[in-house]
UniProtKB/TrEMBL annotation:
Pfam families: MORN, VPS9. This is ALS2 C-terminal like. Gene3D superfamilies: Histone H3 K4-specific methyltransferase SET7/9 N-terminal domain, VPS9 domain. Residues 690-836 form the VPS9 domain. The lineage of its organism: Eukaryota, Metazoa, Chordata, Craniata, Vertebrata. The gene is ALS2CL. SUPFAM superfamilies: Histone H3 K4-specific methyltransferase SET7/9 N-terminal domain (SSF82185), VPS9 domain (SSF109993). Transmembrane segments: none annotated.
Length: 845
C-alpha cells in the first residue's frame, strides 16, 4: 500500500529532468557532477554516446526503470489477486493493484506535462521564457491547443500553469460574442472573462482552472489524476494565501497574508513596506468594519481610516484621522464624505471645528464652523467648502451679525447686534466697522441714521440725523431673533435624518445596522471588540442593539407607560438606532448653541429646533414600529388627525425624555434672553426679603384672617413682628423644587403642588375647606414667590410656557402659570416704578 506513495514522492522531484534540457541554472551543480562522471553514467545506458544530453540520460536512468517496475508490480498484484481466490486478504491486494494502475496513469500524465512544458519554453521568446521558466512549473493547458480568449486588453494567448495563469497580449482587440461560453475569473486586482466557442472547451478549461487552484491550495497534485471521489470539482471561496499588490491604487506594494473571500482580502492585515497596516473587512464585498492606514509620500505620516466598508469603498459611518492632525467623524459614500459629519483640527496652530452637511467630500448645506483663532462661530449655508448664502456670525465678545455671503465674502447689507444692546442695520466690514448707509439704534432708544465712514486715524464719522424723541428702546428691537426665516427648522441637520431614513427604508437590515449606528456593534469578530470610538462613550446597555431585538421590543411596548420606559432606556443606549440619532442631534445642538453660540438672539432658533427634534424622533419611531408590525404581519393602528396627533405625542412622550440632553444650552439662552427682567425681579426679591413675615403679608395686602400666625413659633425674647421665613413654609419649599427638574410637565406639577400647599395652610388657619379665589391667591402666591427666591424665575416661566403640552392650555396648569407670571411681573413693575422715582428725584435740582 505504501509503494505508490513512495514512488509519487520520487516523481514529484524527478520529473523536472526532461523539462530542463536547456535550463541548467538551478541544476548546474548536478550537471557539472555528471559531466565529470560520464563513464559511470555510461554503465547504466546501453546506447549512451558522447552526444547524449545529461538530462535525457538521467531521465533514462531514473524514470524508465521506475515505469517498468510499476508496470511489473501492477501485473504481479493482479495475478496474486486472482491466485488468492476468496481469501480475506484479496481485497487488500486488489486495492494495491488499483493504486499501481492509477500510478501508471499518473506517471504518463506527469511526463506528458513535462514534455509539453519543455516544448513551450522552446517556442516562446527568450525574455518571456526567462521570466516564466522555473524548474517546478508545469503547463496544464494552452489556448493554442484548446482555443479560448480573454477579455483583458488585447490578449491573444492564454497559458494555464499549475501555479499561475498567463495572458499574452498582442495587437488583437477583444471582440464580444453573445454565442460564446464564458468563465468569470476574479483575481485580487482585477476581474475578466475567458471565452470559448464550444461548451466542451469551456468545461475542460473550467475543470483545469479549478484543479490548478485546488492543487495550489493543497500544496500537492491530485492523485489519482482526477482526484478522489470526495473532493469537489470547485475550490473553496474562502482561502488562505499570501499576495503582494502591484497595480496602481491604495494597496500598491502592500503584502497581504491571510483569508480571502471571492478573490478579496477577508478580515486580516495588509502590510506596506514602511510597516503600516490596514485591516480589511469581509472581502470588501460583504459590508463590514475595516481600518486602512495610507502612508503619505511627502511626509513620515499616514492617514488612518476606521470605517464601514462596502464593495471596497468607505460607505456609512467612519472616523478618519488624517496625517495633518485633523479628524473627521461622520458618514461616507464611495470614499467621499457625504451626509452629516464633524471635521476638527485640535492643534494649537490653527484650531477649527466644522459640524454639518457634506456633499461630494465638501462642505455643502447647513453647517456650523468654529474658528477658535478669531473667537467666532459661523452658523449658516455652505457651498463647495465656502460660506455661501445666508449666515450668522457669533463672536466671543457677545457681538453677532447676520449677513449674506458669497464665496466667503460678505455682500449687501445686514444686521449687527452689539453687546450693549445697540443695533446697526446696514453695511459693515468683517472687523465690524460701519461703512456706507445705515441706521444705528442705541440701547436707550435714540437712533442715528445716515452715512458712515471710518478714515484712518480719524475714527468713526457720520453724516445723518440723530433722533432723541424716544427715551426707551422698543423690546422687539432689543430682543430681535436671528435665523428663523433664513434657516427653516425642517431644513437644518437633514443629513442626520437622512441616514436614519436610509436605514429605515432598507428594512433595517442587519448588514446595514453597522453602517448607520457605527462600528461599536458587538459581533463575534475579535477585531470589533476593541473599538471604543463613536459619537458616544460605551457604557452598560439596558436594551439590545441587535435590530431584530429592537423591532421585537417595539411591538411589545406600545402602551404609553410601557413605551415611555422603553424609550428612556433606548435614548440612553449607544447601540439603539434612536439612541444614536439622539446623540448625533445632541452634538449638532451643542456645536451651535454652546460656548460662543450662547447668545440671546438665537433663543427662538434653539427652542424651535428642540421641538422639531421631538416631532421628528416620534415620526422615525413610528417608522420603526410600522416596519416591526409589517414584518410580523400585524396592521398599524390608524388614528384620526395624524399630524395633530403626532405633535401631541412629540410633546407628551418624546420631549420630556430628550429635553435633558439639550437643557443646559437651552436654559442658558433663556437666562440670557430674560437677563434684564430677572435682574429687576431679583432686586425686588431682595427688597421684599427685608420684611418680616407679618409685615410682608401686610404689604402684599393678604387678608388678616388668612395669616398663619400659629406657625410663628417664638424663641425667648423674640417678638412676633420680627419672625421671618416661617409662614407658608411648606409651599415655599415646594416651589423651590422648580429648579430641580427639566421637564415642563413636572415643573407644572410642582406649581400645582405649591398651590395645594397654600390652600391646605389657609384651610388649616380658617379651620374649614377653603377654595382660594383669584383675589386671595395672587397675594399669597406672591408671598411664597418672594420667600422661595428663585433666581431665574423669568427664564423658568418662559421655558415652561414655550415647551409645555398644548393640551394644558386653558386648564388648571395654564391658570397657575398665568398666576405665577402675574406675580413675577408685579415684582418687576414695582422695581421699575421705584427706579423711575429714584431717577426723577436725581434729576430734580
Amino acid at each position: 500500500q505504501r509503494g505508490p506513495h513512495l514512488h509519487l514522492k520520487f516523481l514529484r522531484r524527478g520529473d523536472a529532468c526532461p523539462v530542463m534540457n536547456w535550463y541548467l541554472v538551478d541544476w548546474k551543480p548536478c550537471s557539472e557532477f555528471w559531466k565529470t562522471h560520464k563513464t559511470a553514467l555510461k554503465q547504466f545506458l546501453a546506447d549512451f554516446t558522447s552526444e547524449t544530453s545529461i538530462p535525457v540520460a538521467l531521465h533514462t536512468v531514473l524514470h524508465k526503470p521506475l515505469r517498468d517496475h510499476v508496470q511489473q508490480y501492477a501485473l504481479i498484484l493482479t495475478r496474486l489477486s486472482e491466485a488468492i481466490g476468496k481469501s480475506p486478504d484479496r481485497e487488500l491486494v486488489t486495492s494495491a493493484a488499483k493504486q499501481y494502475a492509477k500510478l501508471q496513469s499518473f506517471i504518463s500524465q506527469v511526463l506528458d506535462e513535462a514534455c509539453l512544458t519543455k516544448a513551450l519554453w522552446k517556442s516562446l521568446g527568450h525574455k518571456l521564457t526567462e521570466w516564466l521558466c522555473v524548474p517546478e512549473r508545469r503547463l496544464l493547458e494552452d489556448s493554442k491547443n484548446l482555443p479560448v480568449f480573454a477579455s483583458v486588453g488585447r490578449t491573444n494567448r492564454v497559458l494555464l500553469f499549475d501555479d499561475i495563469l498567463v495572458l499574452i497580449q498582442v495587437s488583437r482587440p477583444w471582440e464580444e460574442d453573445k454565442d460564446r461560453h464564458t468563465i468569470h475569473i476574479v483575481t485580487p486586482e482585477e476581474a475578466f472573462f475567458l471565452s470559448a466557442k464550444e461548451p466542451r472547451m469551456k468545461v475542460i478549461w473550467q475543470w483545469k482552472l479549478n484543479q490548478a487552484v485546488r492543487q495550489a491550495l493543497n500544496g500537492k497534485r491530485d492523485f489519482p489524476l482526477w482526484g478522489e471521489a470526495r473532493e469537489g470539482s470547485e475550490p473553496p471561496v474562502h482561502r488562505c494565501f499570501k499576495y503582494v499588490f502591484r497595480a496602481e491604487g491604495r494597496f500598491k506594494n502592500a503584502a497581504y497574508e491571510g483569508e480571502w473571500y471571492w478573490g478579496k482580502p477577508h478580515d486580516s492585515l495588509v502590510k506596506w513596506p514602511p510597516g503600516y497596516y490596514s485591516i480589511i473587512p469581509d472581502g470588501e464585498l460583504i459590508p463590514g468594519f475595516g481600518i486602512c492606514l495610507v502612508p503619505l509620500l511627502s511626509e513620515d505620516r499616514y492617514d488612518c481610516y476606521k470605517c464601514h466598508w462596502c464593495e471596497g469603498k468607505m460607505r456609512g459611518y467612519g472616523i478618519c484621522e488624517y496625517g495633518n492632525e485633523t479628524v473627521y467623524k461622520g458618514y461616507f459614500n464611495d470614499n467621499l464624505r457625504q451626509g452629516f459629519g464633524i471635521l476638527e483640527n485640535p492643534s494649537v496652530e490653527q484650531p477649527f471645528k466644522y459640524t454639518g452637511q457634506w456633499d461630494n467630500d465638501k462642505k455643502n448645506g447647513y453647517g456650523v464652523w468654529d474658528d477658535k483663532d478669531r473667537g467666532e462661530r459661523y452658523i449658516g449655508i455652505w457651498q463647495d467648502d465656502h460660506r455661501h448664502g445666508q449666515g450668522i456670525v457669533v463672536t466671543q465678545s457677545g457681538v453677532c451679525y447676520q449677513r449674506t455671503f458669497h464665496v466667503d465674502k460678505m455682500v449687501g447689507s445686514g444686521i449687527l447686534l452689539l453687546e450693549n444692546d445697540s443695533i446697526y442695520e446696514g453695511n459693515f466690514t468683517r472687523d465690524l466697522t460701519f461703512v456706507g448707509k445705515g441706521k444705528l439704534t442705541f440701547s436707550n432708544g435714540f437712533t442715528l441714521e445716515g452715512t458712515f465712514s471710518n478714515k484712518s486715524g480719524q475714527g468713526l464719522q457720520t453724516q445723518g440725523i440723530l433722533n432723541t424723541s424716544s427715551d426707551q428702546q422698543d423690546a422687539s428691537i432689543t430682543k430681535v431673533q436671528l435665523g428663523l426665516d433664513e434657516f427653516p427648522v425642517e431644513k437644518r441637520w437633514q443629513g442626520i435624518y437622512d441616514q436614519f431614513l436610509g436605514f429605515l427604508h432598507s428594512g433595517c437590515k442587519e448588514e446595514m445596522e453597522e453602517s448607520f449606528t457605527g462600528f461599536h456593534i458587538q459581533t463575534s469578530r475579535e477585531l470589533r471588540k476593541s473599538q471604543e470610538y463613536l459619537f458616544c462613550e460605551r457604557g452598560p446597555e439596558d436594551v439590545s442593539g441587535k435590530i431584530e431585538d429592537v423591532l421585537e421590543e417595539l411591538v411589545q411596548h406600545q402602551e404609553l407607560e410601557s413605551l415611555q420606559c422603553y424609550l428612556q432606556k433606548a435614548f440612553k443606549s449607544s447601540l439603539h438606532p434612536l439612541g444614536k440619532l439622539l446623540k448625533a442631534l445632541t452634538f449638532a445642538f451643542q456645536a451651535t448653541y454652546s460656548g460662543i453660540g450662547a447668545n440671546k438672539h438665537l433663543l427662538n432658533m434653539a427652542q424651535e429646533e428642540v421641538k422639531y427634534y421631538a416631532k421628528k424622533i416620534w415620526e422615525l419611531y413610528q417608522g420603526l414600529l410600522h416596519l416591526a408590525l409589517e414584518q410580523k404581519g400585524q396592521p398599524l393602528a390608524e388614528t384620526e388627525d395624524g399630524e395633530k396627533r403626532c405633535d401631541l405625542n412629540a410633546y407628551r412622550v418624546i420631549l420630556p425624555l430628550i429635553l435633558p440632553c439639550f437643557y443646559p444650552e437651552l436654559f442658558m439662552l433663556y437666562m440670557l434672553y430674560h437677563e434684564k427682567e430677572d435682574d429687576l425681579y431679583c432686586q425686588g426679591i431682595v427688597d421684599l426679603s427685608l420684611f418680616p413675615d407679618i409685615k410682608l403679608l401686610e404689604v402684599l395686602d393678604v387678608q388678616k384672617h388668612l395669616w398663619p400666625l400659629k406657625d410663628l413659633t417664638l424663641t425667648t425674647n423674640q417678638r412676633r413682628s420680627l419672625v421671618k421665613d416661617k409662614c407658608f413654609l411648606s409651599a415655599t419649599e415646594c416651589l423651590q423644587k422648580l429648579i430641580t427638574t427639566v421637564d415642563p410637565r413636572e415643573k407644572l406639577e410642582i406649581l400645582q403642588k405649591t398651590y395645594e400647599e397654600i390652600e391646605s395652610t389657609v384651610s388649616r388657619v380658617v379651620e374649614r375647606d377653603y377654595k382660594l379665589p383669584m383675589d386671595d391667591l395672587l397675594p399669597l402666591l406672591m408671598y411664597v414667590v418672594s420667600r422661595a427666591r428663585i433666581q431665574h424665575l423669568g427664564a423658568e416661566i418662559h421655558l415652561i410656557r414655550d415647551l409645555m403640552d398644548p393640551t394644558n392650555e386653558g386648564g388648571m396648569y395654564d391658570f397657575l402659570l398665568t398666576a405665577l407670571e402675574s406675580c413675577y411681573e408685579h415684582i418687576q413693575k414695582d422695581m421699575r416704578l421705584h427706579q423711575r422715582e429714584t431717577w426723577h428725584v436725581a434729576r430734580d435740582p
